[in-house]
Amino acid sequence: MNWLTNFIRPKIRSMVEQKDVPDNLWQKCDACEGMLFHRDLTENMSVCYHCGYHMRIPVMDRLRLMFDEGRFREVAAPSVLFDPLKFKDRKRYSDRLKETRSKLGRNDAIIIASGTMGDLPVVIAAFDFAFMGGSMGAAVGEGLVLAADTAVRQKAALIAIPASGGARMQEGALSLMQMPRTIVAVEQVKAAGLPYIVLLTDPTTGGVSASFAMVGDIHIAEPGCMIGFAGKRVIQETIREALPDDFQTAEYLRAHGMVDMVIARKDIRGSLIRILGILFHKNPSLSLNKGDSRTSEGRNGISKNGGKKKDSGSEPRALAKIKKTLKAKPAANTNGGNARGKKNAG
Ligand SMILES: [Zn+2]
After folding, report:
1. Which residues contact 323 (CB under 8 A, 6 or more apart)?
2. Beta-carbon-side half-sphere exposure of residue 189 (alpha carbons within 13 Å)
3. pTM (2 decimals)?
4. Ligand 1 centroid, distance to 202 Cα (angstroms)
5. What is the DSSP letter of 169?
6. Cα of 166 to ligand 1 centre, how many Å?
7. What tens digit of pLDDT does each residue of 68-97 get?
C-alpha cells in the first residue's frame, strides 16, 4: 500500500488542487449559495449580486458609505473601568477583551464619527459586530452618550447604526444600566430639536433593541435584517404558538409599524440625505442625484413606504406630503423638532 499513499496520492492531489487561486477570492452567499467574487462583492457594498441578500459589512466600510466622499472624523471614545466585575467564564473577560482589542485595533464595539451627509452635519454612532458581537457594555453606553453630546454641540443629526447581540453579559447589571443611560442620551438630542435617526442592521437584538435603537424619530432597516428582543425559539416556547417565518425581520417590523422604511443598502445614503434635508429644512433632494455617484436615487425606500403613514403614490407626492405636514405644525422647536412629533405622540 505504500506506493499508493506515498506516490499515487500526492500525484492525484497535485493534479486536483488549484494552487493558483487563493481561498479568499471567492465567497459563498449565505442565502442563495451563489459564488461571489470578492472584488465584485465589495463594489456591490457586500450585497449578493445574485439574490440581493445583504451581508454584514465591516463597520469602517459602512461609515465610508455614509459620509460625503467617504470622509469622517472619528471621535475618541472615553475610557471606562476595565473588567469591573472581574468576570470569568471559560475564559477571563479581561483576556477576551484584550484579545479582541488587539485583533481589531479598537477599544470597544462602538465607533463615533462626525462629518457631513449632503453637506448637513451628522454624527454617527456605529456598532462593530465583530467586537464581541457588538455587545453593549459600559464603553458602548459611554460612547453613545458622547455621540449624543457631540451631536448637540455640533448641532448635528445623530444617526445610530446598531449591530448587536444585546447587553454584554460579562458586565452584568452594569451593562443593563446602559439601556436607560442611552435613552437619556438620545433624549438630549431630541430636546435640542435635532433629528435622531436609527439605521437598524443585522442583527439588532436584546438590550440594544430594547433601548436607544427603538426610540428614533425615524427607523430605517436594511432588507432581511433581524430585529428583535428575545430569540424566536424562546418566544415560541413561552407563548406556545407557532410564529410566522418572517418573524423578527425588517419587513415584518415594517408591516407592524415598528420600522418606517426598509431600504436597500445602495439607496440608504441617498434616502438619509433626503430625510435630513427635510428635517433640517434644507432641500438637498433636488441636487442629490447629480452629485452623488455612489448612491442610486433612493426612491424605492421612501415611495414604497410613504414615510410611515400609508402607501402613497410617487415619491414627489410622498415628499410633498411630509413637507406639508412639517409646514402645518408650528415651528416651536428649532430645526427638525417638528417631524418627530408624530412618533412621540404615539
Ligand atoms: Zn445570494
Report:
1. 278
2. 32
3. 0.77
4. 16
5. G
6. 27
7. 999 999 999 888 999 999 999 999 999 999
Kindly list the distances between the CA atom of residue 45 and the CA atoms of 22, 109, 298, in Å, as whole numbers in the listed order.
22, 21, 15
Q: Where are the domains of the chain?
A: 23-55, 57-344
DSSP string across 195-259: -EEEEE-S-B-HHHHTTGGG--SEEEE-TT-BB-SS-HHHHHHHHTS---TTTTBHHHHHHTTS-
167 CA distance to ligand 1 middle (Å): 30
**Residues whose CB falls within 8 Å of the CB of residue 258, separated by 6 or more in sequence, listed in order:** 214, 219, 227
> Residues 142-187: pLDDT tens digits?
999 999 999 999 999 999 999 999 999 999 999 999 999 999 999 9
Condensed to tens digits (0 to 9), the pLDDT of residues 206-255 reads: 999 999 999 999 999 999 999 999 999 999 999 999 999 999 999 999 99
Q: Dihedral, CA atoms, 127, 222, 334, 111, nearest 10 degrees?
A: 10
- Best CA proximity match to 71, nearest among 81, 82, 63, 79: 63
Residue indicated by cell numbers 429644512: 281
Query: What separation in Å is there between the alpha carbon of 38 and the centre of ligand 1?
Result: 13
| Assigned fold of 57-344 | 2-enoyl-CoA Hydratase; Chain A, domain 1 (3.90.226)
Task: Measure 34 CA to ligand 1 centroid, in angstroms.
Answer: 5
